[in-house]
Structure formats: structure tokens, C-alpha cells
């Protein structure tokens, strides 16, 4: 079943197209009607008629008699009011649809590159956005039927590993692993860095160890693998605490592409794309210039014969298209890397590794700021760990729950506090246009009022409480009666679910889904105040139970796509 909005939009475009091929009307919700179509003004200029005359021609062509009524308003707006019986029948059909009207699309193989922490370093607030945005996109793509291949491109290679391995040797494997296993990665890294900067002998050992690592020395590789394994185990604990779906099997770090880097260079050289510049081997993709206006190079191989990020990223693109068979690739990486990825995609297309049939997108995002609107840090200036952030949110949720529901068992309270904390942190991030910075305000985020994750959880729990008081399941075979304005507003909100999913998917913008869910929760709140459910006559009571059941299902399903739980009780 096509969504109501999509059905109306399709017919409207056909009507406009019949008058002028390529005409592009806009259909949007309206305060004066359910939907308002704009576009007659622009078409009037093309046809040389008044907007109202054009609107009359559109209405004469547009047949929606099976859906509702249509009228012309103002200078040429087309207002559409959907028939209440049509809405009621569509709601009835949704009761037996697990997807609530959102049909799966033709499956695609989608690679999503996200999170990407560094080995031997702890995950901090700087990893939050990539992790939760990427996780949400993975959930949405899976929901619409895509095969999602997650790629956690961890930093597990490079010169720092020389000093890390030497520090591991100095500590002894047992003590080093004991330190790393409790998640104290930062202390391990700082200690290694301190020795590297202050001890010439250690520095020379570290440099020699890098050479051994890159040369494939078995013992060095074994020690390196210990560091990687301990770090990945720690990352997995953080993902579990956040309820993020990444697993150790999704970790495909920088080192995974080492054996492909020479082939990248050789292929570029064979195609005549490689140019030597200041001793480095580069590609100059068209359209990129530096501050001085000179062509901007993408350095594939540095003057010291080493490979940088560009070579690794090019190898990853080749692998994801040729071996994994990706139809779509998404890189959930911060906005400062915009030009880097533009150049990577441009070079990959020049080389033929990224055909036009494959969609490749940099899902850029802004920063998390503190109350001072600077990068979010502790008072001492240190970067805030993700684990500490979650614990702080959980503590606050636990305290609030204890005050609100003192009779709740400690086990139930602890589980709910975790759910609320995750909702607070994730929703605040996802509900912001990802390209913008946002201020991390835990007091606002943890609140059950306003545009927050806990507010949506509370709306879902409130509906479930109605059914507990009713002492019955949702009535089956009931076609809701849409009579009151609040019923109509909520019904239209329910029927807009497929379009909200499509909007979030097509734009890679989770905030569109968040905005829809918040609007739906507000519509329910108004409905609940103005339309009694349990005290209504039996037929109206059953009708309204169906409406709120669908609302609860959408809230739960929508929250699950955000990676947020929908508790039965709050």
C-alpha cells in the first residue's frame, strides 16, 4: 500500500505534468487543509495565465475522488482534505502490517564506514557522532531491506605502534594486558609517549620496531596483534553499553589494506594518473585547487616512500566495490574531512574503481560542544570519555527514577536508567541536523519534557499504561472513526510514517526521523487530552484504542531505528 502522501504527490505531479512536462509542484501539510499544493504560480508564468486559472486546470485534471476533496484557495493554492473514512480504512490495514506501511525497497548492498577509533586509545566524545549516526543509518538501511556491511575503519597502523609495542615489552605482556583489559588505554598510550619524548634509547628502539612491524617480523606482528585485540575488546564494551550494533567482525582497520597499496599505486601509474611532485607521487583530480589557486594534489605515496591515508582510502574504495559488490558506500566522518573525501571519490572515479552506478557519499557531521560553545572537554581540559559520559547520564536517570517511582526494584531501575541514558545521549545527537554543531547539555537531554529521547520513551510508556488499565488487547477488525480534530491530526501523523523513513534514508539525515517522532508524540499528547479513550462509548473506545496502538508501534519502531529502547513503563 502506497503512503497517502506518496499517492497524492504522484497524482499531483501527473496533473501538473499534463499541463507542462517537467513541472515540479510542492505538496506539504497545511493548517488550512490536510495538504496544500503549491506550484501554480511558477506554472502560470510558463503558460501565460493567472495562478488561479492554472490551479483550476490542475484541479480539472486531478482526480482524487477516491481519497478526498479538493479546492482552490487564495491566489492559486490547491488544498486537499482527505476523507475520514479513507484514513480509517488505511489505519485498519496497518494493524496487520509489521512495517506499518513502510514497504521494503529493492535490496542493495550498502557499506557504511563509521566509528573508527584508534587502537590503544580510549573512545571519547569525539567518536560519539560517527558511532551513533552510523549505527542509525545501518539500522534504517537494514529496515528497508538492504544488506548492510559495516566497516569499523580503526586506526591500527603507523609509527606510534613502534613506541606502543616497546612499552608493552618493557611492562611485560601480563602486566600490559592487565592494564589494557580494564579499559585504561589512555594511560598506556600516555606512558609510551612520555618515554618516547624523553628517552633517546627508547625512541631508537621504537623506530626500529616500526621497521620490523612494516617488514612483517612475526614477533612484532604478534605483539601488535595483542594491542589490537585488547583495544577491540574494549571498543566492544563501549558499543554494548551504548547499544550500538558494531561487532569485532566489523573491524577492518587501516592495516587490512596494506597488501593492496602497491597495487593502487601501480594501477594509477599504468593509467597515467600518477604525477611526481616534490618527491611524492600524486594525482591531481580536476576541480581542486589550493589557497594559491594551484592544482591541489592527492598524495598517494609520500616522498619517504611511505603511504598515507589517501592510499589506504583508495584501496578501501576498490575493495568495497570490486570484492564486496557495494551499490552504495557511506563514510560517516566529521565535516573537516570534506575535501579529503571529495578528492578520494574523484580519483577513484577517474581510475574506474568507482563507477557511476555506485553511490558514494561522505556523511559529514559537526562537533559536540560544551556550554561555552567550544569543543566539549572536562574542566581540566581533557577529552571526555564515552564511558564516563554514559555513566553520568545513567546516574542522573537513576536518581530521577528513584524519586518518581520509589517502589521500583533496583534491578528494574538499573535497566531502565540505562535505557533512558542511551536515549538522552543518542537522541540529542541524532535530532540535530548532523551538519551542525550542537551543545551537549545533559540536564536538558535527560528530561522527559521537550524534544528529548526520554520524552518519546515516556509517550510510548503512557500508551502502554492505557492498555494495562483497559485490561484488554487492541481490538481487531475495527475501522477507526476519525471525527475530532485531534483524531484527524494523529491519524495523519500515523499515515506519514513511511514518508519519514524515506526522508531519513534518502538524505542520510536521522534528524528527519527524530522530528517526525517528536511531532507524532505531540499529536498523541493533544489527542490524549482532548479525546477520552477508556471513558468513551464502546465503539469510540475501540476506535481510539486502535489509533493509540498504532501510535505506540510507530514510536517503538522509530526509536529502534535510532538505536533507542521503548520501555513499557516509565
How does this model look, in words?
There is one protein chain. The protein is an alpha/beta fold and about 575 residues long. It is built from 21 helices and 13 strands. The strands form four sheets. The chain has a four-stranded antiparallel beta sheet. Strands 6-5-10-11 form a four-stranded parallel beta sheet, with helices on both faces. Helix 2 crosses helix 3 (about 50-60), helix 14 crosses helix 15 (about 410-430) and helix 17 (about 455-470) packs antiparallel against helix 21. The longest helix is centred in the middle third of the chain and has 25 residues, at about 220-240. The chain is globular. The mean pLDDT is about 95.
Largest sheet: 4 strands, antiparallel
Work out the strand percent. 5-15%
Structural category is alpha/beta
Shape from CA axes?
globular
Portion of residues within helices: 40-55%
Please identify, by name, the CATH architecture of the domain at 453-561: Orthogonal Bundle
Separate helix tally: 21
Question: If you average the pLDDT, what whole number results?
Answer: 93
Query: Strand order, biggest sheet?
Result: 1-2-4-3
CATH class of the domain at 453-561: Mainly Alpha
Fold-level CATH name of the domain at 453-561: Isoleucyl-tRNA Synthetase, Domain 1
* CATH superfamily label of the domain at 453-561: Isoleucyl-tRNA Synthetase, Domain 1
- Whole-number radius of gyration? 28 Å
Number of strands: 13
Distance between the termini: 34 Å
Q: Any low-confidence stretches, pLDDT <50, length ≥5?
A: none
Oligomeric state of the chains in view: single chain
Amino acid at each position: 500500500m502506497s503512503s497517502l502522501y506518496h499517492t497524492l504527490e504522484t497524482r499531483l505531479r501527473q496533473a501538473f505534468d499534463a499541463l507542462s512536462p517537467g513541472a515540479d509542484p510542492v505538496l506539504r501539510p497545511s493548517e488550512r487543509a490536510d495538504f496544500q499544493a503549491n506550484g501554480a504560480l511558477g506554472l502560470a508564468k510558463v503558460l501565460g495565465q493567472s495562478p488561479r486559472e492554472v490551479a483550476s486546470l490542475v484541479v480539472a485534471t486531478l482526480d482524487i475522488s477516491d481519497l478526498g476533496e479538493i479546492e482552490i484557495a487564495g491566489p492559486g493554492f490547491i488544498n486537499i482534505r482527505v476523507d475520514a473514512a479513507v484514513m480509517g480504512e488505511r489505519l485498519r490495514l496497518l494493524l496487520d502490517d509489521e512495517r506499518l506501511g513502510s514497504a521494503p525497497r529493492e535490496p542493495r548492498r550498502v557499506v557504511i564506514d563509521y566509528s573508527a577509533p584508534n587502537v590503544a586509545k580510549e573512545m571519547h566524545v569525539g567518536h560519539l557522532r560517527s558511532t551513533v549516526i552510523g549505527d542509525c543509518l545501518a539500522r534504517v538501511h537494514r529496515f528497508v531491506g538492504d544488506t548492510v556491511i559495516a566497516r569499523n575503519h580503526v586506526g591500527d597502523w603507523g609509527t606510534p605502534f613502534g613506541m606502543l609495542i616497546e612499552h608493552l615489552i618493557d611492562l611485560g605482556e601480563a602486566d600490559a594486558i592487565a592494564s589494557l583489559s580494564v579499559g585504561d588505554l589512555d594511560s598506556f598510550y600516555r606512558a609510551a609517549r612520555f618515554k618516547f619524548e624523553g628517552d633517546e634509547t627508547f625512541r631508537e628502539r621504537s623506530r626500529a620496531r616500526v621497521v620490523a612491524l612494516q617488514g612483517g617480523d612475526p614477533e612484532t606482528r604478534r605483539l601488535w596483534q595483542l594491542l589490537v585485540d585488547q583495544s577491540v575488546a574494549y571498543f566492544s564494551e563501549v558499543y554494548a553499553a551504548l547499544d550500538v550494533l558494531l561487532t569485532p567482525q566489523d573491524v577492518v582497520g587501516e592495516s587490512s589494506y596494506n597488501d593492496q597499496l602497491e597495487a593502487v599505486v601501480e594501477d594509477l601509474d599504468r593509467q597515467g594518473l600518477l604525477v611526481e611532485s616534490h618527491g611524492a607521487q600524486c594525482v591531481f583530480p580536476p576541480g581542486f585547487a589550493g589557497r594559491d589557486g594551484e592544482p591541489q594534489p592527492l598524495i598517494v605515496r609520500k616522498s619517504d616512500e611511505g603511504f598515507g591515508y589517501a592510499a589506504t582510502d583508495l584501496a578501501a574504495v576498490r575493495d568495497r566495490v570490486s570484492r564486496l559488490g557495494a551499490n552504495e558506500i557511506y563514510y560517516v566522518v566529521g565535516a573537516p574531512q570534506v575535501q579529503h573525501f571529495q578528492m578520494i571519490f574523484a580519483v577513484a572515479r577517474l581510475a574506474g574503481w568507482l563507477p557511476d552506478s555506485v553511490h558514494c557519499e561522505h556523511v559529514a557531521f559537526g562537533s559536540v560542544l560544551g556550554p561555552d560553545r567550544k569543543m566539549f572537554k572536562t574542566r581540566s581540559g581533557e577529552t571526555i570519555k564515552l564511558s564516563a559520559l554514559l555513566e553520568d547520564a545513567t546516574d542522573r536517570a537513576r536518581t530521577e527514577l528513584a524519586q518518581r517511582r520509589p517502589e521500583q526494584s533496583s534491578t528494574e531501575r538499573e535497566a531502565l536508567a540505562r535505557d533512558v541514558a542511551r536515549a538522552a545521549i543518542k537522541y540529542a545527537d541524532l535530532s540535530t541536523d548532523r551538519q551542525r554543531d550542537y551543545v551537549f547539555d545533559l540536564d536538558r537531554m535527560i528530561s522527559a519534557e521537550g524534544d528529548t529521547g526520554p520524552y518519546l520513551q515516556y509517550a510510548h510508556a503512557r500508551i502502554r499504561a492505557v492498555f494495562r488499565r483497559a485490561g484488554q488487547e487492541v481490538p481487531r477488525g475495527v475501522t477507526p472513526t476519525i471525527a475530532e480534530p485531534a483524531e484527524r491530526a494523529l491519524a495523519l501523523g500515523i499515515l506519514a510514517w513511511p514518508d519519514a523513513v524515506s526522508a531519513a534514508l534518502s538524505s542520510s539525515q536521522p534528524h528527519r526521523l527524530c522530528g517526525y517522532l517528536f511531532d507524532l508524540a505531540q499529536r498523541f499528547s493533544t489527542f490524549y487530552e482532548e479525546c477520552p479513550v477508556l471513558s468513551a462509548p464502546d465503539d469510540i473506545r475501540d476506535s481510539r484504542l486502535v489509533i493509540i496502538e498504532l501510535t505506540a508501534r510507530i514510536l517503538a519502531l522509530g526509536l529502534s531505528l535510532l538505536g533507542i529502547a521503548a520501555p513499557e513503563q516509565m
